Amino acid sequence: MTEATASPKAVVKAYITGTKTRDIDLLKSIFQDDAIMTGWLGPDLLHGSPEPFYGALEANEVGDDYRAEVTALQVDDKIATASIKEQNLLGMSFDNHFQIVQLDDGTWRLSAKLFRHY
After folding, report:
1. CB neighbourhood size of 37 (10 A)
2. CA distances from 101 to 64, 91, 110, 116 (A)
3. What residue segments make up the domains of the chain, in order of their start?
4. Beta-carbon neighbour count of residue 103 at 10 Å?
5. What is the Cα–Cα distance from 81 to 1, expressed in whole angstroms?
6. Sheet of 44-48, strands arranged across
7. N-term to C-term CA, the chain
8. Whole-structure pTM value
9. Which pLDDT tens digit goes with each residue over 49-82?
10. Whole-angstrom Cα distance, residue 106 to residue 118?
11. Which residue ranges of the chain lie beneath pLDDT 50?
């Protein structure tokens, strides 16, 4: 177990840190291998793995004006949900909603991300 996967709160914090610093290895460590991302990016509905998200971060700088705020976190035994608002991520802002699950080894991982760009 790593510090980033020790709790749902740690996973959300690692998501924000990994996004801000473009730490793809950290992000990959907090997403389940078969995690899905679904949401609206402008007029396009996207659905698939986090790979395009990783690629966008690898290809673009995240500015110093990036901000992320946790707006909700609910833990119920071995499942959790969390929401964050991101501002100025690659020139865009997002509402993100996460499903987080505790695995058999006790670690926590993001199993799904639902998002909208605004």
Report:
1. 19
2. 31, 30, 7, 22
3. 3-117
4. 13
5. 20
6. 44-48, 31-41, 108-117, 92-102, 79-89, 67-76
7. 35
8. 0.95
9. 999 999 999 999 999 999 999 999 999 999 999 9
10. 35
11. none
